[in-house]
Amino acid sequence: MMNLNQIFTNQRTGNNPHTKASRTDFQRDFDRIIFSSPFRRLQNKTQVFPLPGSVFVHNRLTHSLEVSSVGRSLGSVIGEFIAEHYTSELTEESKSFYLHNLGNVIAAGCLCHDVGNPAFGHSGEDAIASYFERNESSLKPLFSEKEWADLVNFEGNANAIRVLGQQQQGKDAGGIQLTFATLASIAKYPCEAVARDKKILHRKKFGFFQNEKEMFLDIAKAVHLITENEEPYIFKRHPFVWLVEAADDICYNIIDMEDAHRLGIVSTADCKNLFFELVRSETDDVERIERKLGSISNENEQISYLRAKVINALINKSIESYKQNFEAILSGTLDKALLDMYKSENNSLKDIESFSIEKIYNHKAVVEIENAGYNVMYELLDHFIPSIVKPAHQLKSYDAKALKLIPKQFIYQEGTDYQKVLGVIDFVSGMTDNYATDLYRKIKGIDIGMTV
């Protein structure tokens, strides 16, 4: 069982000393993320629908801001619950943390949960992983078994830990230098890639690359993660992870539906019915909601109103589930996400998810951007990786020219092949949709001309 006094810390990557400031260390995390380049680039990364368009839809940045808003609510309520129900077990410092700062940690974690995701949604992740799968014969001999597992299973969650915490060439140690508490809150899959197991929730994917293994072990030690196995390393989830995950699940389940309605992919009637059924199942005040809907003539506003009601209902259910399962969360035995528990007892959210898979995620426009994104990301990797792993004495002029396109902070000339390849992946996965597409068109000769 995890000790509530030991699962948070203001220790940061980069070993920076604690400083006195008007903001708490956890508020500073939030601010650092907001002003960081990886977060800013999310404004031009696809959430689900192609960007940009004449109709506003969410991108990864607006999605992350909304997830953070929901996460702050979840963290604040759960912080009060812990401070009240476990007061005899808590130090004064811990009581203050749970009452005043847990909401900040969850908000910061939610804000940066997607910074490791490449352009073009999940197809960008798939393109990176499949590049190595499809070039196994030439590339696999260059890496250890664990390094190879990182590459062929490339994962945005693990990449987020790298983006936020690793030292790029010529830059300060510790990346953005967030607290270990915030970094632990986004580690949904706290294990090495070779320990992946799709049947087990906390091992469905993996949480850190080999290059960041020591940093992750420092995080795990500082926040007292429960160790399940040491070779390979597998940890139980940190208690804060469940709240970040719930906030993300709440938002993408519901907001994607609202976006699809604005784009005309989903009819007003279908969207209203699906949202209203969930609200109806969780409220005794159906008549008041129906009256309110009747007073709104704009269809988009009707859907926005219901969306707010749905999100509020799901926040309340997540809080209820977290409280009910808190002992299992602290002992590392809970094996089902909070929203998945809700789906098993209420078909309304399951209906929304099934409808979304059929009508939204398989819509032609979504599939087209996934196909295009896959090809763009794959070809960019294919342009750089063969050159980056060539010994210096074997480099041809075309290799040298390819490498000149990579900014210096991503070139690890003195590193291993694994570190050099990770540098290229940093460059490519950090690109926005537009930048990746423009560079692809230029190196393929589709667009030729001088740009500055």
**Major sheet strand order:** 1-2
The CATH homologous superfamily of the domain at 25-235: Hypothetical protein af1432
Q: What do the pLDDT scores average to?
A: 91
Specify the overall morphology.
Answer: globular
Straight-line N-to-C gap = 57 Å
Q: Assign the CATH class of the domain at 25-235.
A: Mainly Alpha
CATH topology tier name of the domain at 25-235: Hypothetical protein af1432
Number of DSSP-assigned strands:
2
- Percent strand equals under 5%
Alpha plus pi helix count: 22
Q: Return the string of H and E elements.
A: HHHHHHHHHHHEEHHHHHHHHHHH
Gyration radius, in Å:
23 Å
Q: Assign the CATH architecture of the domain at 25-235.
A: Orthogonal Bundle
